[in-house]
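Quick one, tokens below. Sequence please?
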């Protein structure tokens, strides 16, 4: 398993933007797909976005399409989640993850992923 550190969360007003980052430690993850998930209090963890190892394929939840963009810089061993036009429904802890198997398209189910970051809190005020 790869060790992941996710960062970049914070408090932002509705309509604002944040950029989350996910960095691997211990080894490079340039050959791995990476997903972002989020979990709000009292709710199940839900898929947000994913990207394949080369960055050629991405997938987004309908709720974030057109507002969030996932990208990666393999030279920096980092995957980003740019979040624009944030609204209070986006408030959650956000987690990056690496799956057991790298597929195309990248997977949208949390059960496919077995390495997780510690989470970073995003709070959007109205």
């Amino acid at each position: 398993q790869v060790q992941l550190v996710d960062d970049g969360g914070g408090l932002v007003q509705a309509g604002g933007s944040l950029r989350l980052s996910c960095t691997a430690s211990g080894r490079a993850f340039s050959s791995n797909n990476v997903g972002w998930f989020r979990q709000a209090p009292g709710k199940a963890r839900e898929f947000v976005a994913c990207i394949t190892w080369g960055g050629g394929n991405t997938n987004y939840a309908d709720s974030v399409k057109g507002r969030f963009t996932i990208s990666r810089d393999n030279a920096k061993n980092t995957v980003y989640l740019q979040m624009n036009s944030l609204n209070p429904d986006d408030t959650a802890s956000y987690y990056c993850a690496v799956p057991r198997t790298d597929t195309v398209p990248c997977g949208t189910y949390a059960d496919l992923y077995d390495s997780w970051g510690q989470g970073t809190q995003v709070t959007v005020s109205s």
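The first strand starts at residue 3 and ends at 7. The chain has no helices and eleven strands.
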